[in-house]
Amino acid sequence: MTLSRNARLLLRVAMALGLAIIYVPLAIVLINSFNADRTFAWPPPSWTTQWWTKAWENEGAREALWTSVKAGLGASAIALVLGTMVAFAVQRFRFFGRDALSLLVVLPIALPGIVTGIALDTAFRSVIEPLGVGKGLFSVIVGHATFCVVVVYNNVVARLRRLGGNLEEASADLGADTFQTFRYVTFHCCVPRSSPAGCWRSHSASTKSW
Q1: Under DSSP, is residue 186 helix (H, G, I), strand (E, B) or coil?
Q2: How far is 203 from 155, CA to CA, in rounded Å?
Q3: How wide is the angle at C-alpha 210 spanned by C-alphas 61 and 57, nearest 5°?
Q4: 10 Å Cβ neighbour count for 133?
Q5: Is 200 exposed, middle or buried (0-12, 13-18, 19+ CB in 10 A)?
Q6: What is the pLDDT of residues 166-207, one digit of tens each?
Q7: Helix (H), strand (E), coil (C) string for 20-35
Q8: Whole-model pTM?
Q9: What are the DSSP calls for 100-161, one per residue?
Q10: Is 76 in contact with 148 (CB distance < 8 Å)?
Q11: Which of 64, 109, 133, 181 could form a disulfide with 150 if both were Cys (CB 3.0 to 4.6 A apart)?
């Protein structure tokens, strides 16, 4: 599709406004964190790092930060493995219930968050807790992973669709076995999609846990 010059200009302006709405408030908060004035006068009359020092010296803040990091890394690891495996299964094979499986994978992000949260809470209360596993870091990781899997799945499926099967077939014709083809061809083509998705979900999960 070819857009006119005015249409491209409007899209760029809209994109710039959208990014400004998202990032300008965050930038102001970051700048204010170095504001030496207790009333947060603007512009800052002087600069200091004492607020960062006090926050780091707070044991509760450090524990919360470490819990967020563990939750983000755990959810991202689960999402990268499960999301990639499901994406390969759905895109590379034809089997009964394939479309239903794809729907189930994307359902957590399609439903309102409160609905998914209530469903997870009910599952933990009725299924997980009777097994002796209470709510804690594990439940936080599982809850975030349900959303993380969707992002990884969508990115990897899109990459596999663009990749097709020609490169893999050519690799097999040149004598590479299945593992070598996956390692040197498929994996390298999917990394640009799966890695950013994993990093983004790790950041998202960490900030939500925080």
Answers
A1: helix
A2: 17
A3: 15
A4: 12
A5: middle
A6: 666 677 666 776 667 776 676 666 665 545 444 444 445 444
A7: HHHHHHHHHHHHHCCE
A8: 0.65
A9: HHHHHHHHHHHS-HHHHHHHHHHHIIIIIGGGT--SSHHHHHHHHHHHHHHHHHHHHHHHHH
A10: yes
A11: 109
